[in-house]
Amino acid sequence: MRIRAAVSATLASAGILLVGWQSGSHVTEAAGSSIGTSAGTTGTTGSTGASAATGSGSGSSSGTSTSGAASGSGATGSTGSTETTTSAAGAGNGSGTFAGSVSQTRFGNVQVQITVSGGKITDVTALQLTDEDRRSVAISNRAAPLLRSEVLQAQSANVQTIGGATVTSDAYLSSLQAALDAANL
Amino acid sequence: MQPISELGGSALKARTFGSMGTVISLTVPAGAAVADHELDAAVAAVERVFARLDESFSLYRPDSEASRLARGELSLREASAGMRDRYADAVGWRLMTEGAFSPERPDGVLDLSGLIKGYAIAKAGETLQSQGITDWCLNAGGDVLVMGSPVPGSGASWAAGVVDPQDRTALLSAFELGGPADLKTGTRRALATSGSAERGDHIWTAGAGGAEFTQVSVAAADIVTADVLATAIVAGGTAMLHRATDGWEIDVLAVRRDGELLATPGFRA
Amino acid sequence: MNTQLLTTRPEVRRSSRGSVNPFKGQHRRRLLRADLLTVLFWASLAGAIALWLADGGASGFSTPAGSFTALGIVAGLAGMDLVLLMLLLAARLPFIDGAVGHDRALEFHRKLGKPALYLLLAHGILIAIGYGMAEGLDPVTEAVNLWVQVPDMWLAYISMVLFIAVVVTSLVAVRRRFPYEFWYAVHLLTYAAVLTSIPHQFSVGGLFAPGTWQRWYWLAACIGTGAALLHNRVLEPIVATTRHKLSVSRVVQVAPGVVSIEMTGRHLDELTGAGGRFFIWRFLAPGMWWHPHPFSLSAEPLQLGPSGSLRITVRNLGKGSSQLARLKRGTKVAIEGPYGLFSTAARSRNHVVMIGAGIGITPIRALLESTPFNPGDATVILRGRSEKELYLGKEIMDLCQRRGATLYHLTGRRPAGVETWLPADATRSGYRLGSYAPNIAEADVYVCGPAAWAQNVLKDARAAGVREEQLHYERFDW
């Protein structure tokens, strides 16, 4: 235990000093330039705290796991997520391990497990990733360059809905979708 | 596909409401299948779905769960099961898109807004189905999910137009959503479009040189996949576009900065 | 025969349950906290120097004068950081207290005294040299110039004098055994020393100039330390005193020069449990109210309905303690605490060995009453020059019989010229600590008694294979 304390303390202190040194040398290089100074010093504030946290945050361990119910998405989809298991493990604040949904992709089922510590992701591991079929996938669906005249054409009168890059509520009123909605309200 | 002009303007009815910083509209066939009061009830239910998710996931509400999480007042372990599941989903997507889609802003703050609109649309769709409504089209700020047909019983597809990023009053293309299931490719029920022009701050580009595509539309079986992959392709460029079309059952229409188009066969005339 | 062996044999020995150790988790957490404190200690020192590095301070080493000044600044930063840490160690913060114990925190506090003083002295001297060289003056002239010309510097000089006074008198007070009262009064000067040093830190030198983030960091450190002191040493005691409303109910002579003081009060059940057993008492009677007495409980607090009772047992140690025998019934009592780790909170093993000598037996009495163990898993060793010095011996024997603990009374003088904690006849027979408690290597060992005696017990325990983390020792002085 004393070794753990000594090692962590050394690492944390060295880290803090290094960060201080680093941002200090920025100050020196940018002597006379006020922009450089402020950038250098700002960087240190955040990093100093981070180094201290790294040194101290040892000692999380695994705990129990719970599994949650699944919520399937739409019935007809072929790609829809099928099940969700959430397992939470770990001790200490803000840490835990969570498993994501199993997603079906062309190259098999993918499920990932993430480890979170202090609200930040520290590790991502694939629980299932069947990659064997990837090479055999017929690459028939590649996106290829084409002329504007070659793409499926449409007039706004011929569609029931308009897709577009995210329309904010401000931009909505001048959008084609607003015209459609107005016609059908 | 049945020409829409023959259906006539009165063939559909729509309701709109605002949520998540955008406008959501629900369109159903105007026939007797859905009475007005049923439509009103359905819209109210959909509105609740959006409101509830917005309440916990939006970062612009200082009291939301996501904001408290971002400020570190709440740890993910103490967060709601829904928050943890979406977080796990988002990180899963990050892995599958090799980092092109990320639930974190460059400053490290957790931002699930890239995922949550699609999730809200999917949830709203489930709500509509549970209310016995079989034909509908839900459009949330340009992301579309449909069910059934605009002409009940006809098997006709919903036609979704895609806005031209260079002229936002014109359509670049259209895509048929819903309709009869295709055994080979599955049914595309969802169309999501992501752009670097508007609200570009929602998509974090890996390189410093700016996005390769100004607009990417992805059609998929479910709206979350469509939405996430559209976002990822804008962020990850051509490499991500090919990874996406290789890995998932989707159709993509991507518009390059110079106006050039890239499209999968589904978007080809 | 001076050595008595009083064994209360448990009827059934349930050793099968020994495999489950309920203290493992608390022990691991406590070690983690102790390690975390070590890290924070060094990180804060590194942080203080990083403040200066981040300001480009290292560039000062390019000239000889700059080098002196730079070293002086670093010494000042590190010295002030140590002073703040010393204050925090003495602030009785629950986090520190629960991790390493009140007495060990104070031990560390004492150890920092000299390094802090040396750093602050070096700060003054090096700066005077560095500034002097830059201006072509000798250090003494420069020091006078600083005093006269630079605002706030005269306060800094006063601060330096006060710091020297505090550290020197503390060291002398400990060695010469000055009365506690004297030492206490001198220590109040520390606050004056710290406060007078603060203005020049912010007004002289550019590191903490207005608008720098370093200024905010340093301000936060100073204000945070002050707030911690104010909260834990002023507000908390006032709250505890008004909540428990303790008053003396009985003063009983236990042995010549030793009295038990029984007190009644409210909500005393809140003081039971795994927490510390050490309080600072002030008896609010004329001539006594200002004098804080550090004593441990000698009986667990007992709460019956609205009124509860607790007890301390005190030996006539100094002028202050002798007044305690004459305390009147109904005297109001102010308390600070509980502090310390001489309690169940420090447990790490199933087995427990409790060793007390003289007045140090009394905290053992309270611990024996409350700490959990299975019959047969506890050993109590009481040490005194004679049977009369085994204070509360009867009570302890009753408790041992009731709870199934093995009890030894060890009486008699220690052999001349031999460093041991045992009586002469036991030493002649070759007894060691392990002779009384064969499974001591697997036990928590609580030791309470005079410092020199306790050191011998601890040495014996270490020789018997007890690890440092299993040793719990309460110093019975301040």
Distance between the termini of chain B: 13 Å
The largest sheet of chain B, given as strand count, sense and whether it forms a barrel, is: 8 strands, antiparallel
Can you give the mean pLDDT of chain A? 56
Q: Give me the secondary-structure category of chain A.
A: alpha+beta
Which chain pair has the greatest contact? A-B, 82 and 107 residues
Helix content of chain B: 25-40%
What is the alpha-carbon Rg of chain A in Å?
27 Å
* Shape, per Cα inertia axes of chain A: elongated
Number of strands of chain B: 10
SSE class of chain B: alpha+beta
> Strand count, sense and closure of the main sheet of chain A?
4 strands, antiparallel
Give the CATH topology of chain B: T-fold
The beta-strand count of chain A equals 6
Strand content of chain B: 15-25%
| H/E element sequence of chain B | EEHHHHEEEEEEHEE
The CATH class of chain B, by name, is Alpha Beta
Q: What is the H/E order of chain A?
A: HHEEEEEEHH
Briefly characterize the structure:
Chain A has 185 residues and is α+β, with helices and mostly antiparallel strands.
Walkthrough of the structure:
The complex is a heterotrimer of chains A (185), B (269) and C (478). In chain A, strands 1, 2, 3 and 4 form a 4-stranded antiparallel beta sheet that branches. Chain A is built from 4 helices and 6 strands. With 185 residues, chain A is an alpha+beta fold. Helices cover 32% and strands 25% of the residues of chain B. Chain B has helices at residues 36-57, 65-70, 81-96, 113-130, 223-247, and strands at residues 12-19, 22-29, 136-140, 143-147, 158-164, 167-177, 190-195, 213-220, 251-256, 261-263. In chain C, helix 1 crosses helix 3 (94-100) and helix 4 (102-135) crosses helix 5. Chain C has helices at 24-54, 64-89, 94-100, 102-135, 139-149, 153-176, 180-203, 213-244, 319-324, 361-370, 393-403, 424-428, 433-436, 451-463, and strands at residues 3-6, 246-255, 258-265, 278-283, 293-304, 307-315, 332-339, 351-357, 378-384, 405-411, 443-449, 471-475. The two termini of chain C are 35 Å apart. In chain C, the strands form 2 sheets. A 6-stranded mixed beta sheet of chain C has the order 1-10-9-8-11-12, with helices on both faces. Chain C has a 6-stranded antiparallel barrel with strand order 2-3-6-5-4-7. Mean pLDDT of chain C is 83; it is low at 1-5 and 9-18. With 478 residues, chain C is of the alpha/beta class. Classes of the chains: A alpha+beta (185), B alpha+beta (269), C alpha/beta (478). Strand 5 (144-146) of chain A pairs antiparallel with strand 10 (261-263) of chain B, so a sheet runs across the interface.
